[in-house]
């Protein structure tokens, strides 16, 4: 529970991105790479922060600390997936995400790891 307090109150986006790499490895991701910021989108919250592979599939991975996840963020991830020619996405956040948004993400091949994941 102490980790979630640190994430909530002391981590910025970059620190959260670096923090979640071991979680991704635990979930079976390999070849995890930090996105090249020189090719990032103009919208600060529409950047996939990482890419990685799992079960021979490549993923675009977004780490959004202290940011409410809605269908907009799911759609932004879908756009990133399209632009990067990958079929799967991951959104990680320390906030709670409602069931409707989680289901919408699943319909678009995106898995959301929210606050429940980081507090178990």
Topology:
Elements: H1 2-10, H2 13-26, E1 30-34, E2 50-54, E3 57-64, H3 71-84, E4 88-93, H4 99-107, E5 110-113, H5 115-119
Parallel strand pairs: 3-4, 4-5
Antiparallel strand pairs: 1-2, 2-3
Describe the structure.
The protein has a single domain, classed as Trna Endonuclease, Chain: A, domain 1 (3-Layer(aba) Sandwich). The chain is of the alpha/beta class and 120 residues long. Strands 1-2-3-4-5 form a five-stranded mixed β-sheet, with helices on both faces. The model has no long low-confidence stretch (mean pLDDT 86). It starts with a helix and ends with a helix. The protein contains five helices and five strands; from the N terminus they run ααβββαβαβα. Helix 4 (99-107) links the parallel strand 4 and strand 5. The longest helix is centred in the first third of the chain and has 14 residues, at 13-26.
């Amino acid at each position: 529970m102490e980790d979630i307090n640190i994430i909530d109150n002391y981590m910025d986006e970059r620190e959260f991105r670096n923090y979640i790499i071991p979680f991704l490895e635990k979930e079976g991701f390999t070849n995890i790479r930090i996105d090249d910021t020189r090719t990032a989108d103009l919208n600060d919250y529409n950047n996939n922060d990482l890419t990685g592979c799992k079960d021979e599939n490549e993923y675009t991975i977004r780490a959004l600390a202290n940011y409410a996840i809605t269908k907009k963020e799911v759609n932004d991830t879908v756009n990133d997936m399209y632009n990067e020619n990958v079929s799967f996405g991951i959104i990680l956040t320390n906030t709670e995400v409602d069931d409707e948004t989680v289901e919408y993400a699943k319909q678009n091949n995106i898995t959301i790891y929210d606050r429940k994941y980081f507090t178990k």
